[in-house]
Amino acid sequence: MAELKLENIKVKRESFNLEIPLLCVSAGKILGVQGKSGSGKSTLLNAIAGFEPLEEGTILFEGRIISAMPTELRRVAIVFQRPALFSHLNVLDNVCFGLKVQGMRLAERQKKGRYWLERFGLGHLSDRFPHEISGGEAQRVALARSVVVGFPVLLLDEPFSALDVESKVKCRMAVKEVVKELSLAVILVSHDAEDIQSLADDYCLLELGKMIKFDSVKK
Amino acid sequence: MIPVYLALLIFAVPVVTILYYPIALLFLRALGDTTLVKLLSIIPWEVVLFTYSQALVSSIGSVLIGSFLAVFFHETDFWGKRYLARICEITFFLPSILVVLSLVGVWGSRGWLGRWGLGQSLYGWPGILLAHVFFNFSLVFKTVGQALSEIDRTEEKVALSLGASRWYVFFNVTWVKLRSAVLQSSILVFLFCSSSFLIILMLGGGPRFNSLETAIYQAVKIDLDIPVAVSLAVLQLVVCFVVQLAYKPKAVFSKVSQGSAQWKLFPQQKSFIRWALVVLVWLTIFSQVILPLMNLTLSGMKGLTTCNWIDLGMAILRSLDLGIRVALVSTLISFCAAYGVRHSNHSFLNAMVHFTCTLPIALSTMVLGLAITIAFSQADWLRETWWAVVCVQSLSVLPMGFRIFNESFSRIEVEIYRTLESLGAKKHLQLFYFEFPYLKKTLALVLVTGLGVSLGESGAVMLFESQAKTTLPLWLFKLMGKYQFEEAQAVGVVLLALTLIIFGLREKWQSSN
């Protein structure tokens, strides 16, 4: 079964060390990561995405080592707390960005982009620019953009923390649907216990760069 | 509101008197004396063509080098990077006469490299381009570098995670955010190069390389042909004004994402190309900036022993005398403008102040000097004393001074003013007990900026030249004209030292502002 696996990874960042002996996320599952500020949650995601180099250890997906690859070849999509939409592109072009990079033809990628926008309830916004939509809508566009490329791993770095309650609920529902449908292996970093409880299958707790707890959410 | 109106009045009276009135008279004189057709017929078009073509080529060179260096410095860590960056930033603050002197010292026929036959073609196009690029690339370097450091790199990270290659991300995400900074800095460089005076006068090497500025100077000082000078000045003003309309400096604040400074788009791997680029950058900066400045310093130190110290001391005192007056006048005017804009609710009035404060960017000191000469042709005292030069130089500082004050005022939140008001502080009390203490470093920054600009400016000084007004740049120019290079380098090293002190102070107050 497809699985994202972290083995004995160590990330060094100035005076801070992140050490994870073993961490696995299966396809179709969401792993919630919790911890206080500075515990290493975002560093963990940055290391998986390839923005932080590993001191030691390996990251594997389906048994293939991806930690030696550059970010652009890892097939790991990421959504940050800030939607980080490309301000010079409209909503549809933002969603289609990854498909364009893959070399997909214009008509095909627009069709796919529009489909996912509809799925996220954003079809009517396709011609708008990022500054013309709300924060909640922008975050759903960012989610659509990272899903449309069809990468098997999705990293979510506090994606709902800047949203109002209504947007939060919509975004959570969208994530839940997509993860099951596409069988994505997802790591969700959040300081909000409600996010973890409503979305994650398992969770781990980080403290000062060490994993101090790993358990099923149901327990 | 009385202090606000008073400030706007203090700003308006001098700008109307020494900016709008002289410019209006310049236009009236140009169109009053003759018809438009006749006016156009007396313009030497080859001079016009040369002025703007050299400005265009110089701008392209400066933008290419400045942008490349900014991106390279931002994306690559290498030995000596910090020091090289500082050196690159200094060149823009150097007086143009020092740029000429230091380049001649290396590439001139008797220069360090020129004597080996490497600098035979310094005079003409090569010298002008070299000096303009030397002078202006740092403006692009600093502006683009600033824009790069302010980019939130999350978008680049997202693009990479979506499978885009590093170069694809650079051209489709990073570059899109830099375009405006590059465009704005290239407009400024074009304006500076098209109104460049001393570099073309000294490195042009003859009438073949006459620009509008040198032609105006020649018409006023040598041919005494005011109608020609006026028509050239009007043309220069109109062209520069049209170009300046495209200049829209970016908003004051940008959000910088935490930790974005450490992250690099391109991996820091040791490769031959990277090593070769580092060597190329080192060599370029060394040969074009460090070597000329080193030559000036070493030769100048040698020349100091034979220099006339009394004349030197007098020139320093005159330069400082002029500089302090310019610093005080320009600080007062720009402070009043920014204060007025911060507190006034009249959008039209604020727009007018903004327009007035950016207008001098399109005006060279030569054009302004000519306009003031015509406007106050009866007021001999103005032209014979320092005040005509002070007026021209203060207006040149106005765009910078206003921008610095405006940025500082913008940082004061509305809530602070509301709190002050709730504590019973009226406008004048807010000014004395809050704004002045809060802005003391900004005040110091504008003062040294004014002093620095005045210290290096030579166009206005040469236009209103007299024995009693021999400042350091003017004296240097005269010495170079007499081929007394040793003595010129001695004066140059003193001017360089003063410029570096001012640059240091400016940097100190800018970073803490």
Explain this structure:
The complex is a heterodimer of chains A (219) and B (513). The two termini of chain A are 24 Å apart. Chain A is built from seven helices and ten strands. Chain A has 219 residues and is an alpha/beta fold. In chain A, β9 and β10 form a beta hairpin. Chain A is 35% helix and 29% strand. The mean pLDDT of chain A is 90. With 513 residues, chain B is mostly helical. Chain B folds into two domains: 1-34 and 306-513, MetI-like (MetI-like fold), CATH 1.10.3720; 42-305, MetI-like fold, CATH 1.10.3720. Chain B has helices at residues 2-33, 36-41, 45-75, 81-90, 96-107, 125-150, 154-161, 166-194, 198-203, 212-222, 226-244, 272-304, 309-343, 347-358, 365-375, 380-384, 387-411, 414-422, 427-438, 440-456, 459-463, 472-481, 485-512. The radius of gyration of chain B is 24 Å and the shape is globular. The A-B interface holds A 49-51, 70-80, 82, 84-88, 97-98, 101-102, 142, 145-146, 149, 151, 155 and B 152, 154-155, 157-166, 168, 172-173, 176, 257, 263, 267.
Lay out the secondary structure.
The complex is a heterodimer of chains A (219) and B (513).
Chain A: E1 3-13, E2 16-26, E3 30-35, H1 41-49, E4 56-61, E5 64-65, H2 71-74, E6 76-79, H3 91-101, H4 106-119, H5 135-148, E7 153-157, H6 165-182, E8 185-189, H7 193-199, E9 202-207, E10 210-216
Parallel strand pairs in A: 3-8, 3-9, 6-7, 7-8
Antiparallel strand pairs in A: 1-2, 1-4, 4-5, 9-10
Helix pairs in contact in A: 3-4, 3-5, 4-5, 5-6
Chain B: H1 2-33, H2 36-41, H3 45-75, H4 81-90, H5 96-107, H6 125-150, H7 154-161, H8 166-194, H9 198-203, H10 212-222, H11 226-244, H12 272-304, H13 309-343, H14 347-358, H15 365-375, H16 380-384, H17 387-411, H18 414-422, H19 427-438, H20 440-456, H21 459-463, H22 472-481, H23 485-512
Helix pairs in contact in B: 1-11, 1-13, 1-15, 3-6, 3-8, 5-6, 5-12, 5-23, 6-8, 7-8, 8-11, 10-11, 11-15, 12-23, 13-14, 13-17, 13-20, 15-17, 17-20, 19-20, 20-23, 22-23
